[in-house]
User: Fold this.
Amino acid sequence: MTKTLFDLPVYEDDVQAMLDKHNIKALIEAERYYRDNLHYDKMEECYAKESRVRISWYDGDGREFVRISSNSGLGVKHKIHSTMIWLNGDKAVAEMQTTMMGKREVVDGVDTDTKGYSRLLYKCWKEDGVWRIKGLDCIYERDWITAAGGHALHNTEPADSEHARDSYKYLHAQLKRLGLDVNTELPGEDDLTTIEGLYTEAYDWLTE
Assistant:
């Protein structure tokens, strides 16, 4: 039977392994905190010299992602939930559950908030003795748009919905309104094979 991330142990009784997991959790939480609160110089330090970020609107080098983010003005916030970490020596894969909240915007004359559930999958490794992020992918679960202040939205279906994925169609619409291209082939719960492929890739990287 083919092994996956979920066949690897999550419990550690080795002191160094426990310390490593503590530091990895601190690293990925810090990366999101620095992004949300505009500390981009500190966010950049979280990434390895060579890294890759693959999300809805970006696919490329991690540190370049930070530099573009610092100028984008997207104003996205992340509320962090539980975290899982799989460790193998100086490499680790970590998955963090988050609620993403997009920048408030006016849609059809109404102030709106776009939110979504997602899981952020990090590849981390020790670089010069320090844990840093080698890769970041996003698994999209579902999203929605709501009106602020108790107002009603007359039409919540995105204009470009025929080209969007169900797992992140409202995010897709918001990014298009902001003039950004959107990757519609990312891991999402509307197509579980895309998630399985990402987990297989992460497992292979961790155990190679």
In short: The CA atoms of residues 111 and 149 lie 8 Å apart. The chain has one domain: 8-207. The mean pLDDT is 91. Residues 8-207 form a domain with the Nuclear Transport Factor 2; Chain: A, fold (CATH 3.10.450.50).
